[in-house]
Fold these 2 entries.
Entry 1:
Amino acid sequence: MRCPFCRHSDCRVIDSREVEDGQATRRRRSCAACGRRFTTVEEAVLAVLKRSGVTEQFSREKVVRGVRRACQGRPVDEDALQQLAHRVEEAVRAGGAAEIPSHEVGLAILGPLRELDEVAYLRFASVYRSFSSIEDFEKEIADLRRPAAGEAVEQRSGSSTG
Ligand SMILES: [Zn+2]
């Protein structure tokens, strides 16, 4: 790692800590030549494979942008969007694959979005699943109306991965 100030290549790590629940490591470094300090963040790269065959780095911001569009005029605040994007990222990372198809990112968005706002969910699903008729909406709405199995059970008690 080169020093960003003097480009010297000998930099010592003086502190190292995990951030984002261990998904990234933040290191404090000190340059042996000029003595200045800087921070680096190491993160396992999660690639999204688009239908075009191009891969790009997973971006939480992109998830937020897509969902924000579906939430226009809905009582969903920025905080909720960020939380949703965080959940999507965790779900996607939990899959354990270094490269995931973009439609799986879309799938990971549907669940949390449905909990957040049903209208936004319908909008997002209509684009994502390319609804082509009113029947598609009707079917989806019927699904929304059907009480989920075990709905009485507290659902926000965390993801029980295992
Ligand atoms: Zn330096």
Note: The beta strands are 11-19, 24-31, 37-43, 47-49, 55-57, 99-101.
Entry 2:
Amino acid sequence: MPGRRGLCGAGGASVDRLWSFSFPSFRIHWCAWGSFGGRADGQLSKGFVEALKAVVGSSHVSTAVAVREQHGHDESMHRCQPPDAVVWPQNVEQVSQLAALCYSQGVPIIPFGTGTGLEGGVCAVQGGVCINLTHMDKILELHLEDFSVVVEPGVTHKALNTRLRDSGLWFPVDPGADASLCGMVATGASGTNAVRYGTMRENVLNLEVVLPGGELLHTAGLGRHFRKSAAGYNLTGLFVGSEGTLGLITAATLRLHPAPEATVVATCAFPSVQAAVDSTVHILQAAVPVARIEFLDDVTMDACNKHSQLNCSVAPTLFLEFHGSEQVLAEQLQRAEEITQDNGAFHFSSAKEAEERSRLWAARHSAWYAVLALRPGYKGYSTDVCVPISRLPEILVQTKEDLKAQGLTGAILGHVGDGNFHCLLLVDPEDPEELHRVKAFSELLGRRALALHGTCTGEHGIGLGKRQLLQEEVGAVGMETMRRLKAMLDPRGLMNPGKVL
Ligand SMILES: Cc1cc2nc3c(=O)[nH]c(=O)nc-3n(C[C@H](O)[C@H](O)[C@H](O)COP(=O)(O)OP(=O)(O)OC[C@H]3O[C@@H](n4cnc5c(N)ncnc54)[C@H](O)[C@@H]3O)c2cc1C
């Protein structure tokens, strides 16, 4: 990541000086700011707000209620908990100074990407300063021949792909929302293409991270963008999925992939959930290199038909996509059709035209809003379990039965090729009893996934609501190891407090 040196640290310290501080003691760095009283009685002191303005300029700091509230929640049902102030740094030097300032004054720091998270990750549970990184939106380097790109935190995955359009390359990780790429790193995101191209974990090569005290870390070494490495501990992996609790990601080096020569989509309806999931397993076992294989249950299909003007059967359905040359596509499509028909599929149709393909995927990506529209005024609550693929049929079938038994309105959809699915539950926000049932259902589902050797979250993260399940998932020693890592990097516990651990 060249061109980003000469960082100004707290009180004008250069980055070289920051690096010379004995890690992990951040004390020298903190002292440079003197004291502003930080935060007292649930408020930031005037002097502290002035110091924030001195770093980023007055126009890039806000303490307005509406702005704070807008930054105190994401797309989840978690209650809005606004920060005390929101700041918009313009470059990594400012991020470093902001972190040093907050840390020196004992003020919590909450990184903010685009706020599309589903686990309450941006809620300021202890107040503090929300650092909105959207103004840092440059593509810093593009290495076409090395299949890699370096982006600032405000670049979204759609913006990156728009920029790459004529390059022959693309970045395939695609959560439904147009999230920031560094937010996607922070949550360990994935999406519909993960079955073929992997999740963020497999597609991040290097990260630039401002640590809580302001120090700058390059997780794989400054400027490096190699395909593989056996050099020491995997620091990059540590920050993927860290949910803003270990540092602020200010640049990400990402792996790019060749854009497919041709693409074809198919939809296929089944008489039962079991038949749809069995088809998924059989397609993967037959080594058909499917690029996307998404499951939508009958409730989701009904919602998508209404919301996106589709005309599909209201039945358990697979949306599939294949990438390759024209000849390879024809073979893949034929094999998938045979397999689904062996499993009782009653409707298989395919489309090559870009318009029809985008119509289908737009409908899939709008499924969250389509389901919400089934009950106007209701809120959505999404589960996110992931199990070994062999256990997928039983957990999906059981989940359907549980929904019925509990009298809950829920739609199931998922990235079944990875064993990951979501149950979107609709809740009346004014009905505490229903909310209680939804939370109990979600915990039951999480525990069922754990019992099947799966995880409580395939891609959304732990955030506020799954901390207990994380403990059950990784066990006491796993938890203690995570706590020690956190304490080493963030000894004052100020980086996005209340999340993950
Ligand atoms: C309709 C819809 C569909 C979705 N589908 C998917 C899906 O298919 N797959 C999937 O994985 N997710 C999905 N999501 C969830 C969401 O898009 C992802 O979690 C995404 O990665 C969040 O990115 P963001 O930039 O919005 O992060 P935010 O919501 O702003 O933040 C999320 C967390 O990351 C931290 N963070 C953000 N930026 C940084 C940074 N630069 N440095 C350090 N920490 C940071 C925040 O503090 C917070 O803890 C969906 C969301 C919606 C609304």
Note: The chain has three domains: 41-132, 139-258, 262-452.
